[in-house]
Amino acid sequence: MSLIDTATRTADTSLPLLPVLAERWSPRAFDTEAVIDEAKLTAALEAARWSPSANNSQPWRFIVARRGTAAFDTIVANLMGFNQVWAGAAGALVVALAEVADADGNERRWATYDVGQAVAHFSVQAHHEGLHTHQMGGFDPAGLRAAFDLDERFVPVSVTAVGMLGDVDALPAPLRERELAPRTRNALDDILVVNS
Fold it and tell me: Which CATH architecture fits 34-59+75-105+112-139?
């Protein structure tokens, strides 16, 4: 089994970051034999639950499906492109939903932003717990909505694979190359529109 040296995945930052942030990355190689640790998964979900939201509206909902369940297979079937190739090896898949309107039909303008914060908290806590996550936007929202009979107020925003690192050599060549490629980001100066 060939695992990636996680030390080589640490972000090269201009100033030191908390290790849980600098060391977090999004693998595609998950261990197909590892069963998700329920306490660690619950801790990550608790972190999402306690993330901030506009007016404390908490507009997030999650579909949590463990590998080997019908719900997991349904999520995999609604992934697009190469996400279907690797994501089925994860210990669990988590669909993040935004409640874009309240029960009275009033728009929740910041719902998707708040869901993004919840997923970020989830991923950082998961990494702290020794799990790895990979967030995906390549999925069929309409397919998930139909498969899980979701009310129109709930919009699928992302799917997150979560589990333990697996064998990078088990990935097809193009995905293996992406897995082993150096981590890159735009320079800090390039993302600051104004910094006065």
Answer: 3-Layer(aba) Sandwich (3.40)
